[in-house]
Design goal:
This protein is mainly β. It contains 3 helices and 22 strands.
């Protein structure tokens, strides 16, 4: 009983920082190109992907977008060959960006980025074989990033911002204790977390066709203070499972990204990103419970995650570009070069990627049945006029992994399928 309950808390961090169903859902243009865009300034979402790129956008703009996540997990138990599924609600990652400059072609720009790089809900069907490990887990994490960007020269830009992360979690599981009516006991954990980090980026226009970008997003230590634990157990066991509080510290990994963008001609651009993700920070997880009993004690458990890489790439093709005969869509740069902005544009995007799982054999859990994953994306963008436009994307992945967890001994094969359609609207002036 003591071990089972300790594992209940260990699962909290697993979904918080593992890949799960989450990818770089922070910009629809980038999502359409395989979630790559560190070296390609396209809109205010560069505040997330690479703040150093934002200085090469000559505009004030606001973007609002979201990417609903439709994901299902099928688990086949090794011993019984029984099949169990999730009935999770739709995930709702979103992003909001605002970027501002004091005057046209200003070297210094300011912005604010609000997004949800971590967060989902996974819920298994009633009575599934792993009910004593998990029945439901809901996680929400919102990142708020005030940002600055400065153009050092015509070819080099730098930028950075502080990240404030606020989150909440609700985790539920059954306990292998039955009352007189045969109903299993239940445990629920709920808490709020907060952490601070930063994002820093450099952008280089190597020549007229090639851009290079480097971005670093720091580790964020999410601290849970005064989390609440609630038990539904027979009265005779209430002293062993007291309702109370706990504290913990859960790490979100750092991400170093190197990206390149190659503009072959006026209509065709290719992008590629390589992410180095510092998952090794999730080596050991500890929890401190305010009230300990013979069934509930403070825990310290090895998780042994490993650092990993992810590879992303894609392309953007301008299928339609129309210019107005009016001079109202012309802008003059500081070098007195007149540039025309297209009145209408239709852009087609596609891409894909491959990510290496940080979860080593023996540590796969029902919360994040993670595996090495390949995925594909497509996207469309359309400018209605000089100020407004829409971007669409679609992400698909299917992953499969068989494993036996060394602590819970849950053994079987997980198959996860996720469809993620995205949409965003922008306004610039």
């Amino acid at each position: 009983m003591r071990v089972l309950f300790q594992l209940f808390f260990l699962f909290l961090a697993h979904n918080l920082i593992a890949q799960g169903f989450q990818v770089n859902f922070q910009g629809q243009k980038q999502q359409g190109m395989g979630c790559a865009g560190t070296a390609l300034p396209r809109d205010a979402s560069s505040l997330f992907y690479n703040p150093g790129s934002a200085v090469f956008l000559n505009e004030n703009s606001v973007i609002v977008g979201g990417t609903p996540v439709f994901a299902n997990v099928l688990f086949i138990d090794s011993a019984s060959n029984g099949a169990y599924r999730t009935n999770s609600p739709i995930g709702t990652p979103f992003s909001v960006y605002g970027m501002f400059q004091a005057k046209s072609s200003a070297k210094l720009k300011f912005g604010i980025a609000i997004n949800t790089p971590f967060g989902s809900t996974i819920q298994y069907e009633d009575g599934w074989i792993g009910r004593f490990a998990l029945t439901r887990l809901s996680l929400k994490a919102i990142f708020i990033q005030p940002t600055f960007a400065y153009r050092i020269s015509d070819n080099i830009g730098i930028g950075g911002g502080f990240v404030i992360s606020k989150g909440s979690v609700n985790l539920q599981k059954d306990l292998p204790i039955q009352d007189a009516n045969g109903v299993y006991s239940h445990a629920e954990l709920a808490g709020k977390a907060i952490g601070i980090g930063y994002n820093f980026g450099i952008h280089l226009n190597a020549n007229k066709k090639l851009n290079i970008g480097i971005d670093y997003r720091s580790k964020i230590n999410m601290k849970v203070n005064d989390g609440e634990v609630t038990f539904s157990v027979p009265n005779s066991l209430s002293a062993n499972f007291p309702n109370g509080n706990f504290t913990s510290s859960l790490p979100l990994p750092s991400v170093l990204t190197l990206g390149a963008a190659l503009k072959l001609n006026r209509s065709l651009t290719f992008v590629v990103d390589v992410n180095a993700v510092g998952w090794k920070v999730y080596d050991t997880l500890s929890f401190d419970y305010k009230q300990n009993t013979s069934s509930l004690s403070d825990t310290k458990s090895a998780r042994c995650y490993k650092n990993t890489f992810a590879f992303r790439g894609g392309m953007e093709w301008v299928a339609l570009r129309c210019y107005s005969k009016s001079a109202s869509n012309e802008i003059m740069t500081e070098d007195a070069v007149v540039t025309k902005i297209p009145l209408h544009e239709l852009l087609v995007r596609c891409g894909g990627g491959f990510g290496i799982s940080p979860v080593q054999n023996g540590y796969v859990t029902p919360e994040t049945p993670d595996a090495n994953r390949a995925y594909g994306t497509i996207g469309l963008g359309y400018n209605f006029n000089l100020k407004t436009g829409i971007d669409l994307s679609l992400y698909y992945t299917k992953i499969k992994r068989a494993d036996t967890n060394i602590e819970t001994q849950i053994s079987g094969t997980y198959t996860t399928i996720a469809w993620c359609p995205g949409i965003s609207f922008y306004y610039r002036w």
